[in-house]
Amino acid sequence: MSTDLKYVIVDDDPFNNMICRMVIEDALGETEINAFTKPEEGLEFMKENIKGPTVLFLDINMPTLTGWEFLQQYEAFSDEVKMNTNIYILSSSLDRRDKDRATTNKYVQGFISKPLDFETITAIAGGEFQD
Amino acid sequence: MMPNLKILHIEDIRSDAELIERTLKKSGIAFEKLLVDTKEEYIKALDEFHPDVILSDHSLPAFNSLEALKILKQRGGNIPFILITATVSEEFAVNVMKEGASDYVLKDRLQRLPNAVINAISKYQSDAERQVYLDKIFASEALFTKAETIAEFGTFRVGLNNDDISWSAGTYILLGYQQDEVAASYENFLKPIHPDDVEEVQNIIDTSISNAQPEEIDFRVINKDGSIKYLRSQFEFELDENGKAEYVIGFSQDVTREKLAQIQVEEYIDELKAAAERQSAILNALPPNIVLLNEDAKIVAVNDSWKKFTLANNLGVPRHGIGFHYLAISEKATGMDAISAKKISRGIKEVIAGENDEFSMEYCYYSGTQKVWFQLIVAPLADKSQKGAVVLHIDITDRKHVEASLLQSRANLQTIFENTDIAYVLCDSGHKIVSFNTKAYELGIEQFGKKIKAGGDAFSYFPKSKIPNLKDAIQKVTNNELVTYETSYDLKDGSLKWYEVRWAGIANEKKENTGFVLAFDDITGRKISELERDRITADLVKRNTDLEEFAYIISHNLRAPVANILGASTALNIMELSPGEKDKLSKGINVSAIKLDEVINDLNQILQGKGGFDDVKEIVHFSDLVDSVKISIRNLIENNNIKITYDFAEINEFLVLKPYLYSIFFNLISNSVKYRRQHIDTVIEIRSRLFGNKVELTFSDNGMGIDLKKNGGQVFGLYKRFHSNIEGKGMGLFMVKTQVETLGGKITVESEENKGTEFKIELEI
C-alpha cells in the first residue's frame, strides 16, 4: 500500500469528514488527510499544495459552492495538480442523475455513495476501485 | 314608150351620116343624134352628151374606131358600141368585138342597124341590171360576213354523202380559226371543242343524223388564248328526192354572254336559296315557337318548334295553323284564361299598328298535369314594306323552376341563418351593414348596448380600442384571407364573454371583393372549460415538479443523516476506537438522528401545507402578524439590537388563510434577522400598498444579501442555502414561495450582496 497517497476531503458536513478520516486511518494507518467544510478553502488548498498523488473526496451539495462549481474552478488548475489528483464524488445522493453527471466528468474517477467504507478506501488506495 | 335614145355618131362622111340617120328614123326609133369626127369632139360628147349608144365608122382621118373603143373603156363607160363600116374583114370584125364592141353593121346592109341598136341597148341594159344585182349580192355577202362577226354567228353546210363541206366566215371565227386557216371538216369542227363536251356533241350529232331530226346543242370551245366560249348550234336537214337526208345545214351562235349571265343567275338563285334555307334552318333550330303574323294577325309562317307545339297540343288545325287567326289557335292550344287572351290580343294589335315596339308577358297553364310557363314576345316585323308581327313563345318552365328553387333555397338559408347560434353580420365593401340575423341583433344589444341597423357603419358598434384591429382584419379579408381570432368582452355584470370571430370576404365572379361576413360564435362555455383545463394542467405540472423535488429531497437530505449514522455506527462496531473517538461518534449519531427527524418533520409540514385547502379564511391585520413574529423571536431581536418597522397605512386588513400568511411573515422576518450583517444596526422594514384589487407587501432589510447573478434561479429552491456560516436548512424561502402561491399570489426578490434584500409579495384581494 502506497504511503505516498494523500487525501483531501471537501464536504460541508463536519461529521461526515470525521467519519471519513477515521475510516481512512483505520484502513491505511497514519495518512495525510486535509478536510474542508468550506469548498472555497478546499480549492485554495488544492491549488497550492498538490505535489504528489492525491485523492480528493468531493461532496456535491454544499451551500456556497456545489461540487460541480468546484470542478469548474479546478479545471483552471495547473497540469501538475490535475495529473496528481484522482477525484471521487462522495455524496449521500441516491439520485441517478448525480451519478451520471459524475461519471461523465473527465476529472472524476468515480461516484461513491456515503458512507465511505473500509472496502472502498482499500480499493482506491490499491488502485483497484471499480465504479 | 321608150325615151329618146341618145346616139353619138362618129363619122366624117356627111352622106353616110345622113343615110344612117334616115335608116334609123325609118325604123321608128325616137332618138337625138350628135355627130362628131375628131377625138376631142368624141371625148367632149362622152362627158356632156351622155350617149345611150355609140355608132362608129371604122376609119376617120385622124381617128379610128379601135381608139374610140379604148377611150370608152378607159373612162369606164358602159355604153354599147356598134361599129359601122364599109368593108371589113372577118378577122378585123372579130378583133373589134374582142375589144368590146357590141356589134358591127356593114354600110351596105344598113337595114340591120335598127335591130342592132335595139339589141345592143337591151343587152346592155340587162348587163347593167345584172351588174347591179351582182353588186348587191357582193355587198350583201360582205354585209353578211360582217353581220356574222358582229352577231357572233356562223353557218355551215355539210354533205352527208360526199365531202362537200362549207363553213361561213362566222363559223371559222366561232371555232377560233382564221378564215381559211384550216379546211372545213368534221375533225376541225371537233378539235377546238372542250374535251368534256366532245363526246356529248358527237352523240347528239350521230343521233340527230340517224333520225334526220333537227337538233340543238350547247357546247364549249376553248379559244387559242385559253378562254372558254359557249356555242349553240342548231341544225336541220336537206332531204333528197327520196326523203333521205342529204345535207346538214347548221347555224351556230356565240351564247357565252347569255351562258355566263345564266350561270350567274343560277349562282344568285343558289345563293338566295341557301340564304333562305339558312334562315329557315336558324328559325327551325330556335327553341321558341316562332309565328309570323300578317296585318290581320293571321299566321303566315311558322318554324319547326311551332309545328311540334301544334302537334304536341293536338291543335287539329291544318298546315300548322297557317292562314288561321293566331289568337283563335293559341287560345285553343293553351286554354289560357280570358284575361290573358285579351291582353295578348291587345298587345298584338298594338304592335301591328306600330303603337308599341314590343309586347311581352309570361303566362302559365297546365299541359296535362304539368304546369308549364311561357314567355310571349310580340315584335313588329323589321321589314317596313310589310305590316305584321313576329310572335315568339319561349318555354321558361325550367327557368321558373330554377327561380322557385332559388327562392326556396334562399328561404332555407334564411332559416339556417336565423336558427344558428352564431351571430352573422353581412357588410358591403364600405363596411356598411347590409344584413344581419336575429342573433347578431341580440348580440349588439347585449354587448354594445346598440341596435344594429342595416345601412349603419359596422365600425360604429365596436369600442374604439378595437378599431385598429378591425381595419387590419378588413385589409386581410379584402385580399380574400380568412381572419379568425378569439376575443373577450366584459359584460355589465362583470363576467366575461368569449367569442370566436371570423371574417370572410365575399367576392363576385370576377373575384373582386364586394364585402365581408362577420361571424361571432359564443365560445364562453368552451373558453371557460379551456381555461379550467389550462389551470388543471398547470396544477398537474406543478404537482409533478413537486414530486420530483420530493424525490430529490429524499435522495439528498434524508439520505445525508442516514449515511452519517450508517458510517458512524459501522465505525463503532468494527474499529478499535479510543473512548474520545467513541464519544464523538455517538454524539454525531445523535445529531444526525435529530437532523433526520427534522427533515421528516419538514416534509410533513410541506405536504400538509400543500394540501391545506380546507382552512377557513379570516380577516388578518398585517400589523398583528408582525407583532406576533416579533414576540416569537423576541430574544434574537433584543440581543442583536434589531429594528423592525412597518407601514400598513394604505391597507392593513386582509381576508386570508391566517396560518399561511403568518408563516410567510415569520420566515421572511427571521431570515432578515438570521442573515443580518455584523457590525451594523439591522433594520427591517415592512409595508403594504394597494394596487387595484391587489395588495403588495414589501419586506426589505440591510443584511448580507444574496448573489442573484449566481443563485437567482435557486433562491426559492428547497434546501438551497447560500451562506455556509449560518445555520439553515434551505427550507424557509421554499416554504414562503409555496405558501404565497397557495394563496394565489406571487413573490419576487431583489438583492445585492452586503447591501440588503427586498422581497415583494403580490396577493389578490
- Please give the largest β-sheet of chain B: 5 strands, parallel
Count, helices of chain A: 6
Number of strands of chain A: 5
- Could you tell me the radius of gyration of chain B in angstroms? 75 Å
Note the overall shape of chain B: rod-shaped
- The oligomeric state is heterodimer
Unreliable spans of chain B are none
Q: Which class of secondary structure composition applies to the elements of chain A?
A: alpha/beta
Order of helices and strands of chain A: EHEHEHHEHEH
Q: Quickly give the structural class of chain B.
A: alpha+beta
Low-confidence runs of at least 5 consecutive residues of chain A: none
Helix content of chain A: 40-55%
**What's the mean pLDDT score of chain A?**
89
Strand content of chain B: 25-35%
Dominant shape of chain A:
globular
Most extensive chain-chain interface: A-B, 28 and 32 residues
The largest beta-sheet of chain A arranges its strands as 2-1-3-4-5
Task: Give the averaged pLDDT of chain B, no decimals.
Answer: 84
Count of strand segments of chain B: 29
Distance between the termini of chain A: 20 Å
**Main sheet properties of chain A:** 5 strands, parallel
What does this structure look like?
Helices cover 44% and strands 21% of the residues of chain A. Chain A is built from 6 helices and 5 strands, in the order βαβαβααβαβα. In chain A, strand 4, helix 5 and strand 5 form a beta-alpha-beta unit. The model of chain A has no long low-confidence stretch (mean pLDDT 89). Chain B is α+β, with helices and mostly antiparallel strands and 765 residues long. Chain B is built from 22 helices and 29 strands. In chain B, the strands form 7 sheets. Chain B has a 5-stranded parallel beta sheet with strand order 2-1-3-6-7, sandwiched between helices. Chain B is rod-shaped and about 230 Å long.
